[in-house]
Automatic annotation (TrEMBL):
It holds the Pfam family P5CR_dimer. Residues 13-108 form the Pyrroline-5-carboxylate reductase catalytic N-terminal domain. This is Pyrroline-5-carboxylate reductase. Keywords: Amino-acid biosynthesis, Cytoplasm, NADP, Oxidoreductase, Proline biosynthesis. Belongs to the pyrroline-5-carboxylate reductase family. Residues 172-276 form the Pyrroline-5-carboxylate reductase dimerisation domain. It comes from the Bacteria. Its EC number is 1.5.1.2. Pathway: Amino-acid biosynthesis; L-proline biosynthesis; L-proline from L-glutamate 5-semialdehyde: step 1/1. SUPFAM superfamilies: 6-phosphogluconate dehydrogenase C-terminal domain-like (SSF48179), NAD(P)-binding Rossmann-fold domains (SSF51735). GO terms for molecular function: pyrroline-5-carboxylate reductase activity. It comes from Novilysobacter selenitireducens.
């Protein structure tokens, strides 16, 4: 099931545990789309990162996780998978017998691991957002553990839906594939942008021109994919005149194994997600 972005979410107090790249994208996207900064608290040990969040978005910032978390209705865990267990264990005293909704954005870490590390009573939504959330153009896959109530599920959908599309996943094992396609996905597009720009420069284009041509081509094509609703293959064929320039390029991509390479890359990212779960158990 997918849903459209919400323009102005009415959210309860949210505490972000970890204020790095992904948290910044979510917080920036939420504030830009109408969330009250006074309802957003962030725990971040790095002084410069913490102060930048306060200065840029007006949110309340804290050095310690428990300071931000105490009294918040939703906890968003945005730390690296490698430290998640320690961070959750440190929250058990604040969680008590009735912990608030816990939303994890971490790659690999399962809802069962989160629940146990938080003391066994937590309702956990495992999510996988991506950094275009900063522009309200994110997409987030979400899985709700059995303890999550309908109201909590709606809260998670409102929070992540404020910064882009949401897609609910019924089988948690598929969250590693979500991570591999859309969580990591922006990096694949940025790699393609780098390669297109470099190739344009190699053909003699000035760097500025190559960047503008490559980046706006990606933006225009992405908008067509979303706004036309037509399959990618149909849009591709409309650009590809028989015997023309595009055909020469597409045949080069196909004979070079682009589809196989993309499949291998997504498979490697999916596998890495599973490894992160096992390695940090
Ligand atoms: N960067 C991305 O595009 C995406 C990242 N994620 C997930 O988001 C999580 C965070 O990733 P990033 O933001 O990229 O990493 P990051 O390294 O930029 O942010 C993590 C932050 O957690 C802070 N931190 C460390 N220990 C802490 C503690 N005890 N309490 C509070 N904060 C603590 C660090 O100082 C750091 O600022 C990871 O689990 C990752 O899998 C998910 C989707 C996309
Ligand atoms: O690379 C990572 O592990 C994280 C998860 C998805 C995007 N960044």
């Amino acid at each position: 099931m997918t849903s459209e972005p919400n323009a102005s979410p009415a959210l309860p107090t949210v505490a972000f545990i970890g204020g790095g790249n992904m948290a910044r994208s979510l917080i920036g996207g939420m504030v830009a789309r109408g969330a009250q900064p006074s309802n957003i608290r962030v725990a971040e040990p790095d002084d410069a990162t913490r102060e930048a969040l306060r200065a840029d978005f007006g949110v309340s910032v804290f050095r310690e996780a428990h300071e931000a978390a105490d009294g918040a209705a939703i906890w968003v865990f945005a730390v690296k998978p490698q430290v998640m267990r320690v961070v959750c264990n440190g929250m058990q005293a604040v969680a008590g017998a009735h912990p608030p909704l816990a939303i994890s954005v971490a790659a690999g870490i399962t809802s069962t691991q989160m629940k146990h590390w938080l003391g066994g009573a937590a309702a956990v939504v495992r999510s996988m957002p991506n950094t275009p959330a900063l522009l309200g153009a994110g997409v987030t896959g979400l899985f709700a553990s059995p303890e999550v109530s309908d109201e909590q599920r709606a809260q998670a959908d409102a929070l992540l839906g404020a910064v882009g599309q949401t897609v609910w996943i019924d089988d948690e094992a598929q969250m590693d594939a979500v991570t591999a396609v859309s969580g990591s996905g922006p990096a694949y597009v940025f790699l393609l942008a780098e390669a297109m720009q470099a190739a344009g420069e190699a053909q003699g284009l000035p760097a500025d021109a190559a960047r503008t041509l490559a980046t706006h081509t990606l933006m225009g094509a992405a908008r067509m994919l979303v706004e036309s609703g037509e399959p990618a293959a149909v849009l591709r064929k409309r650009v590809t005149s028989p015997g023309g320039t595009t055909q020469a390029a597409i045949e080069t991509f196909e004979s070079g194994g682009l589809r196989t390479l993309v499949d291998q890359a997504v498979t490697a990212a999916t596998r890495r997600g599973r490894e992160l779960s096992a390695a940090n158990d």
